[in-house]
Every structure is written in structure tokens, then in C-alpha cells.
Amino acid sequence: MMPYNKTTGADQVKIKFLGTHNAESRNTKLVSFIIDDILAVDAGSLTSQLSFPEQDKIKAILLSHGHYDHIRDVPAFIFNNSCRTNNVFATSQTLEILSSHLVDGEIYPKFTEYTPICGKTSIKLITLEPYIPTTVEDYEVVALPVNHPLNAVGFQITSKDGKKVFYTGDTGPGLSTIWKQISPDTIIIEVTFPNQMEDIAKNSAHLCPKTLKKELQEFLQIKKYSPQIILIHLTPKYKKEIKEETKEIAEELKISIKIANEGEEITI
């Protein structure tokens, strides 16, 4: 099990969490994280948690699905960086939601079209086909369908040095098919509700600690090893309860499970 680490070398991948919750407040931000300062994954807090120079370093954005808390800051990010072409990768449905509801020429400018101020289009929408590896900057990205509305996907992201991260995005139970196709060093997985809300979690296609346990047991059975497990997308008002319940799972399965916090960095 890889521990949290504040330093990174040339052969390591750095992940910085910008938002780790599903509801926003002064202390909790919507889901987004960045890899090696250049690859953004989901965009719930992509601008609110980064300075302008930090935003300028980002070369590409991956979006797991079209729910607002995962795409909210895309138009603000494009506005801040409108005089360059910004690459956004997602499935066709997610790109359609983004272009027809946010960067639609009404709420925000239609950044997919030529803008006379900068003399170019400000956003390039690039379709990801599930299961097909795609090169995104220096990473290989594979989008894998998960159990969540709007044809949501998770991502296995592999660095040029072979380090692998799997991010589930929002998902309900049923990851065993995906476990057979991936070999991550780190899994970033959602847990939205506590066990007392198991039915609500299942009906909304999310996980609670009880269903998380089943998914991790299946991973261990299929893959025969334990990657670093990082939890994300927690409901703030239930965070203490979720933390206590996942601690019990970690002890029972004899693995380490961490809950990500805003501003926290890990390396793999």
C-alpha cells in the first residue's frame, strides 16, 4: 500500500485534489482533481481552487459525465483561458450536455465557435469512445462505463512511466467487470452516502460503505492485490459517519482507505 507522500520525482505521478465533496460550502468543494498540474479530471471546482497561473498550466480536461457538479467550472475555465484552444475530452453525450447547456451562447459564449476577440475557437471538444485507449498529453486514457446516469464513465489514466490511476467518477454498485480490465496503483472511488442511506445510494447509483466493501472485496478476489484506495464525492453532512464506517471496512479487509480532502496531494 502506497502512503500519502508530499514529494514527487520524475517517475512519480502527482495528484492534487481541488474538490472532494458533492456539495459546496466555504470548506467543501465540488469534485475535481489535477494530475501533474496539467491534466484536470472533472471540473466542479477547477477555477475556484486554482490561481490564474495554475489554470494556465492545465493542458486538457477529462469529464466523467454531464452532471452539474462535475462540469460546472468548465465555462469559467475556458473564459479565463479564452485566447488559446482548450482540449476537453468526454463521451459524446457529456460533450453535448456541455455545449448545449453551458457554453451555448446564452449562459456563456459559444466557445466552440470562432471568436473575433481572440481570433480562434477557445474550446475543442474531443470524443472519447469507451474501452478505446486515447492519448491525452503524456497519458493513455481509457474511458470505462459505470453504473450512473447520463452514460457516466470512469477513467484509467496511465502515465508514460506506467503508473496507473483509476477514477470511478460517480458510480453505483457493479464494478466487477471493470476490475477485470484494469490494474491500477491507485483507485479514486466515490462514496456518497452512509450505510443508513443504502437504498437511496442504490436508487441514485452511488456507493455507501457497505456497497464499497463488496466492490473492494471483488477487486481483491479478482486482482489478488490491494492498490491505494482514496475516497471522494462524500456528502459533507455525513462525512463523519462515512469515515467511521469505512474505517471498519479497512480494518476488516486489512487495507488502507483514505478520504481525500481539498488541497491534499498524493503521489504514486
Strand order of the largest sheet: 6-5-4-3-2-1-14
Structural class: alpha/beta
Helix content: 25-40%
CATH fold annotation: Metallo-beta-lactamase, Chain A
The CATH homologous superfamily name equals: Ribonuclease Z/Hydroxyacylglutathione hydrolase-like
Kindly describe this structure.
This protein has a single domain (about 15-265), classed as Metallo-beta-lactamase, Chain A (4-Layer Sandwich). It has eight helices and 14 strands. The chain has helices at about 50-55, 70, 75-80, 90-100, 175-180, 200-205, 210-225, 240-255, and strands at about 15-20, 30-35, 40, 60, 85-90, 125, 135, 140-145, 155-160, 165, 185-190, 230, 255-260, 265. The strands form two sheets. The protein has a seven-stranded mixed beta sheet.
Any descriptors?
268 residues, seven-stranded mixed β-sheet, alpha/beta, 14 strands, Metallo-beta-lactamase, Chain A, single chain, 8 helices
Concise account of the structure shown:
With 268 residues, this protein is α/β, with parallel strands linked by helices. The protein has helices at residues 52-57, 68-71, 74-80, 92-101, 176-179, 198-203, 209-223, 239-253, and strands spanning 14-19, 32-35, 39-41, 60-62, 86-90, 123-127, 134-136, 139-145, 153-158, 164-167, 186-190, 228-232, 257-259, 265-267. The protein has a single domain (14-267), classed as Ribonuclease Z/Hydroxyacylglutathione hydrolase-like (Metallo-beta-lactamase, Chain A), CATH 3.60.15.
